[in-house]
Amino acid sequence: MIHFRFLPSSWRCLALPLLLLAVAGATASSAATPPMQLPDTIAQRAAACIACHGREGASTDGGYFPRLSGKPAGYLFNQLQSFRDGRRFNADMTRMVQHLSDDYLRELAAYFAGLDLPYPRVPADSDASAAMLARGRALVFEGDAQRGIPACTQCHGQALTGVQPGIPGLLGLPRLYLSSQLGAWLTHDRRAPAPDCMAEVGRKLSTADINAVTSWLALQPVPADSHAVAALPGPLPQPCSAMPR
Asked: Can you name the CATH fold of 42-218?
């Protein structure tokens, strides 16, 4: 640092102008340097989703937020569209997608559907009783014919990994998330375009049914082939907008 009091008096009149010129030169040089440019890719634009859904859309086993990686693109698009159009409700999601076009939502859905990341480990234990877990397994594989409840496998596939193009898998998801979403169908807080098959099923589920099903699902390992199957072996038990005919 220059101390003016140590300069000869003949230099002091020149020191301040020179210092001002140096500062001005440094400022001009800084202004001339272009700011860092982020790549304009769908991966970069989708980075905002990671804050809640985890690294590249692969959620952890302890979180509330669902996994996005590897879900059928049609399903992901339908959910993004529902958040935008008011059929699903989450303040953060609505704010993020409210001004996005269908084409942009399809691009986001295709990006996450194309990711193939490992699933989190399955929880080692549960506070659910053996009777509750047995009830959950029965609903998953057999349903309840007397109450008009189809088995989960009739729509989500025998391996429960989902069906292309619009039905999601049910494994590798946090129990809290599963129970909250089934509860949302029951209370009409979550909807889908007509025919809304899950709304029909959800209205027939009791709180005990939801706790049993989600407790059993949360303990199941994800199979080695976790991809959604191309088609079901038979017709859906009821019409569903997720699988247009």
From this structure: Cytochrome Bc1 Complex; Chain D, domain 2 (1.10.760)
